[in-house]
Write a structure and sequence with these properties.
With 422 residues, the chain is mainly alpha-helical. Helices cover 74% and strands 1% of the residues.
């Protein structure tokens, strides 16, 4: 049974990489085979799928759709631009702004919010927006690891490691991922300052976007507050975060219907939810649950330990940089969903606190996606926007920014995480 599970697991991942257009179908088909063959017991199927993660992502995506429609993100970007003297600082300010938003909002949604503003500025100045959009995308991806709601990988970590919202700020009495990521952001900002050092054209934007509705902003802030409160309350259901996000989305949808009677917009909000990712995650939860059930995850953990000679620093180093490399080519959601139980198994074998390795995994997997144009959904979204505007983005153009940005952020995060949690 174990050999069958391993073969199915390997074939599943080869297909996920080879045919990304059908990755959700592949994950569901593989999960179904695991169930039919009895590798994943039928009575454990519903319990293996992490419904908290599924509902939390769905609710957040829907609320973000309402937030974007309200024009509030565009107004905030306009205000920031009005305070900058030239192109260099306008681009860097937009990148930092995108990063701040991305700590609390999905990375792809953040890029979609901020990119149009950068394109408008570049058109007014008669310059290419390629470098600006790439900077916005990599900054969004970087900050996704900062909070529980910043990225799907953070949500996965929070649920697997039983971390609440506040744990991403202070954990075990020490500065946690939020502050580690901020140090990475500061270091990588110096990289952007160097890259854009010659772009000193003056920029002026007196236009101000008119916000059409402040309620979605209220919903987004309320969501964050409620997630924080729920993380400190005892005896909460395991799906409490998902319930909060879905209830707030329902409130937003009902309000839209009462005020606007606009069913087309309501339908568009539901369309903006990335069902492919949700189905993919559900399938992966079952696949990973199946290989865990027959002991494969434990075997992989033992291999990691044997290669490192039981040396926690070696394991940590391999994990971080292997994650950077893999995430440059593989969707980090798939990778993190698979590796979290492996990391837990490694820590159990060593009899050590797993959080150093958990944080190393997230830093490597989240920031490593900035190495290539296809390494993160935010990068793909940014390049897609540029393509629609008639701009082609070469791998060389992307790596000119992505490569030094990634190494600056990862190296600082790698060192700081070891110093704080080793």
């Amino acid at each position: 049974m174990k050999i069958t599970a391993i073969v199915l697991f390997i074939v599943t991942y080869i297909l996920l990489l080879s045919v990304p257009k059908y990755r959700a179908h592949i994950a569901v088909l593989s999960a179904s085979i695991f169930i039919v063959l009895g590798i994943m017991p039928l009575d454990k199927v519903l319990g293996t799928i992490n419904w908290n993660v599924i509902f939390m992502i769905a609710g957040t995506m829907g609320i973000v759709s309402l937030f974007i429609d309200s024009k509030m993100p565009a107004l905030l970007a306009d205000i920031i631009i009005s305070k900058t003297p030239n192109v260099k600082w306008a681009v860097i300010s937009l990148a930092l702004f995108a990063g701040f938003i991305s700590a609390f909002v999905d990375n792809v949604a953040t890029v979609i919010m901020v990119a149009p503003v950068a394109i408008t500025i570049c058109k007014k100045l008669g310059i290419s927006p390629v470098a600006s959009i790439i900077s916005i995308a990599v900054s969004s991806n970087l900050q996704g690891a900062a909070t529980l709601v910043g990225d799907t990988t953070s949500i996965l970590l929070g649920n697997h490691a039983n971390m609440n919202f506040f744990d991403f700020f202070i954990f075990q009495g020490k500065p946690s991922l939020f502050f580690i990521v901020q140090v990475g952001a500061i270091v990588s900002t110096f990289v952007l300052l160097w890259i854009f050092r010659k772009d000193k054209q003056l920029v002026n934007s007196d236009e101000r976007t008119v916000v059409t509705d402040y309620f979605p902003s209220f919903l987004l802030v309320l969501m964050i507050i409620l997630l924080i409160i729920a993380s400190f309350l005892p005896n909460m259901p395991s799906t409490i975060n998902g319930i909060i996000c879905m209830i707030l989305l329902a409130i937003g949808i009902i309000r839209v219907y009462i005020i606007r009677h606009d069913m087309e917009f309501i339908i568009s909000v539901f369309k903006d939810i990335d069902y492919i990712t949700l189905i993919l995650l559900a399938g992966l939860f079952l696949v990973v649950g199946g290989v865990t059930e027959v002991g494969v995850i434990d075997d992989i953990s033992k291999i990691f330990v044997s290669i490192s000679g039981d040396n926690i620093f070696v394991i940590y180093t391999i994990l971080v940089w292997f994650s950077v490399f893999v995430s440059a080519f593989i969707d980090n959601i798939i990778y993190v969903a698979t590796m979290l139980p492996v990391v837990g198994g490694i820590a159990a074998l060593l009899g050590t606190d797993p959080y150093l390795l958990y944080f190393g995994l997230i830093i490597g997997a989240t920031l490593g996606g900035n190495l290539t144009p296809i390494g993160a959904s935010a990068n793909i979204a940014g390049i897609g926007i540029l393509n629609k505007q008639g701009y082609e983005v070469s791998t060389k153009e992307f790596t000119r920014i992505g490569l030094p940005f990634t190494f600056a952020a990862v190296i600082s995060g790698y060192i700081l995480t070891w110093i704080i949690f080793a």
